[in-house]
Structure formats: C-alpha cells, structure tokens
Amino acid sequence: MKERPxxxxxxxxxxxKAKASNPAKPAASRDRTPxxxxxxxxxxxxxxxxxxxxxxxxxxxMVLSAMNEVERHRFVDTALVNQAYEDTSLPIGLGQTxxxxxxxxxxxxxxxxxxxxxxxxxxxxxxEIGTGCGYQxxxxxxxxxxxxxxxxLRGLHERAVDNLRHLRQPNxxxxxxxxxxxxxxxxxxAGIIAAAGGDALPQAWLDQLAVGGRLVAxxxxxxxxxxxxxxxxxxxxxxxxxxxxxxxVPLRSGIA
Length: 256
Ligand code: SAH
Prior knowledge:
Number of helices: 7
Order of helices and strands: HHHEEHEHEHEEEHEEEE
Strand content: 25-35%
Number of domains: 1
Oligomer: single chain
Distance between the termini: 47 Å
Bound molecules: S-adenosyl-L-homocysteine
CATH topology: Rossmann fold
Shape: globular
Strand order of the largest sheet: 5-4-3-6-8-9-10
Low-confidence stretches: 1-37
Radius of gyration: 18 Å
CATH superfamily: Vaccinia Virus protein VP39
C-alpha cells in the first residue's frame, strides 16, 4: 500500500488576509477559501478518488475528467475538508447533504447514456434539481452545454453562488425556486437530474424532458425504499427503469 498523502494535515486553513489575497473579494467567500499549497495536495488526493471510482467500475472518461477538475474540498465546511475526497456524503447545512462522489459519478454517467448526446459527446441543456452546495452543478457544467440548477433553500442557493464564483462557468445558471415545477424557461432538456427524492416524479419534469432526453432521479419504490429511476422520453412515450437503492434527502415543495 502506498503511503497516505499528507493532505489535509499540511493545509493552512486559516482565513486569508484580505489584503494579501484579493481585496475586492467579499468576506463571506474569502473566509471559506482554503489557501496556498492546496493545489498540489488536493490534486494528489483527488487522483486517489479517481482511481477508486475507476476501480468501482466508473468508465465514463468525460465524467471522470470533470470530477478530477472540480475541487470538492471547496464545497464543504473547513471542518470537513479532510473528508472531502472520501467516498462519503457530508452535511452541507440546513439538514442537507452533498452526495458521495460515487453516486455523483454514477448519476451523471447514467445521464450521459441517453440518445441525444451532442457530436462531441457533450449533453445539451441539463436541469439539476437540488443545487445544495453546488458541487454536482460544477461537475455537470463540464459535461453539458448549459446547466440550470435550482435550489429551494435560500441559504444553500446563496452558498452555492459563493462556492461557484471562482469557477466562472458562464454556462451554469443557479436559480432559487421550487424544482418540483422544473424550469420551463430552459426546457426542453437533454437531461434532468434530481438530488432529492419524492414518492413520484413531478409531471413538470416529464413535460420538460426533450424527446430523446433522459431523467435520472431518486424515487420511493413500491416497497417504500428509495431507488434510482431512469426515464427516457421517446417519440412513442416514456420508458422507466428502476435501478439500485439510494439514500437521498426528501424532495419538498415551495421555497424556504
Ligand atoms: N447536488 C447537491 C446535493 C444537495 S442535497 C450537491 O452537490 O451538494 C439535495 C438538495 O435538494 C437540498 O439542498 C434540498 O434543499 C434540495 N431540494 C429538495 N427539494 C427541492 C425542490 N423542490 N426544489 C429545489 N431543491 C430542492
């Protein structure tokens, strides 16, 4: 076995001094930005995460490369940074969690197995329900032409805006709203992906899915357990597949 990399023991997680870094940056985002030396260390632990994902059977290179680029530690509280590259879900505040990397990889890979990929392998427009801390939205913005990500909790929406500022992804649109209604302004979608699960799929999602598009979401199965559901919209109608059991936070209506 190779020796464990020193990350995060070598990290200096003290907030940066305003003047030393970027005086124009607002305090809230400055305080959560880990500082120097992180680049190299986090690349090493991320490489280990990528290897684990490959070992677990993830073979979608576009997804792997997107997850290799997005620094997951930037999306979790500083107290949890040392777990950022473990295959575990983590609390992100307001009773919500960031999904574990293997689930993010699995769901985005499933999304990309639909029929309407672009010529270069990119998805067209994608809708994500449940922005949370914004991690999965960041990964999606690297595999899709346009991403609309919607969150119903103002506190998390604002946090995601803050977390994602450094990436400056012009194709990523963060919205505060009730994702059960979808986002008709961006429809039809090549892909719809939900990070929260209810008893049934909201009709709006099905309506806003493009013909040839794919929806991947957790949903309560008839046994009362939650499972991943994949829905494909074809010219003839909808085809649904029930996959493995998962544990996502509940889908709720309204904004809070
Ligand atoms: N993809 C996220 C996971 C967040 S957990 C990440 O990478 O961090 C799921 C999120 O779904 C929670 O933040 C929860 O508030 C949100 N959610 C639940 N019901 C929703 C709804 N109807 N519309 C929008 N967001 C919703």
